[in-house]
Amino acid sequence: MIKLVYVSLLNLFRPNVTIMQQKLVVFTGAGISAESGIPTFRDANGMWGKYDAMKLASVEGFGEDPQAVLDFYNARRKNLLEVEPNHAHRVLADLEKQYDVTVITQNVDNLHERAGSSKVIHLHGELTKVTSSRNRLDPNCIKEYPLDVPIRLGDKVADGSQLRPYIVWFGEYVDNMELAIRLVKQADIFVVIGTSLVVYPAAGLVNYAHREIPKFLIDPNDMKQGLPFGFQHIKMKAVEGVDELLRRLEGLKNAEVETSDELGSSLRDF
Ligand code: APR
């Protein structure tokens, strides 16, 4: 409300100043990359239906069979060279023309960045990077690594330990969580795309968005744990769903301008 009054006063006194950019925070999961050809984890043909998550995505699994873990991630890293961002990734990047957009993603692919999104926070790591198996958060050991160069057993990092993928494995601390919570709390509009909301602490982000703000969830399926409170469910796949999202955002903007004009004219009459 305060922002609306500010906008009307702004319109009143300095009509040609553009509207302050609203903070649009988008929280994504594997579903947004599904139409780029990267399988999700828990859908019918999902990765965890074919592979054992605890064997391939945990510190214990890496300890027991490091070669199997490296083979799994080397294949996913290589596959990233064969896929492209889709329309959904591109629409989010394009929305930066109208909003202050931050993407918070659980995805370890780089499709948001390749689509042009300038503010992307990865909660579960990045396939394009490697790190230390002694201390994965050591900044001296985290580095970009060519996707077509396999991580091999015996490859060492600066601290002398075995090189590992820069991925947050099950049971590991999600170091970007505090930042993500802060950003969701500041959002003017919150959008969730393509996540089953079953993996914590990431899934808990939906509870930090302000209850008054517009909230949208794009997913062709129902949420196993029910639609989070206050969300509009756009029950579509991401590529189609983002166009519906654009329509609803346009509707919001028009409603705001109408209200601010009304306010503006009542202030003028005041
Ligand atoms: N468009 C939008 N959503 C889709 C699409 C699509 N084309 N296809 C599937 N979905 C939805 C599914 O209905 C499901 O709700 O995407 C969601 C995918 O859920 P998961 O496979 O559980 O993926 P995600 O929520 O991202 O997993 C979270 O779990 O395995 C770990 O670390 C991994 O980051 C991952 C985390």
Question: What is the secondary structure topology, with strand pairs?
Answer:
Elements: H1 2-13, E1 23-28, H2 31-34, H3 47-50, H4 53-56, H5 59-64, H6 66-79, H7 87-94, E2 100-105, H8 111-115, E3 120-122, E4 125-132, E5 143-144, E6 163-167, H9 177-185, E7 189-193, E8 215-218, E9 231-234, H10 238-269
Helix pairs in contact: 1-10, 7-10
Précis, in short:
The protein is an alpha/beta fold and 270 residues long.
Question: What would your notes on this structure say?
Answer:
- It contains ten helices and nine strands.
- By secondary structure, the chain is an alpha/beta fold.
- A six-stranded parallel sheet has the order 3-2-1-7-8-9, sandwiched between helices. Strands 5-4-6 form a three-stranded antiparallel sheet, with helices on one face.
- Strand 2 (100-105), helix 8 and strand 3 (120-122) form a beta-alpha-beta unit.
- The longest helix has 32 residues, at 238-269.
- Residues 29-31, 34-35, 40-43, 46, 106, 124, 194-196, 198-199, 218-221, 237-238 line the site of adenosine-5-diphosphoribose.
- Adenosine-5-diphosphoribose (APR) binds next to helix 2.
Shape: elongated
Bound molecules: adenosine-5-diphosphoribose
Low-pLDDT runs: none
On the 0 to 100 scale, the average pLDDT is: 93
User: What structural class do the secondary elements suggest?
Assistant: alpha/beta
Rg, alpha carbons: 21 Å
Helix content: 25-40%
Distance between the termini: 19 Å
Tell me the number of helical segments per DSSP (H or I, 4 or more residues long): 10
Q: Count the strands?
A: 9
Strand numbers in spatial order across the main sheet: 3-2-1-7-8-9
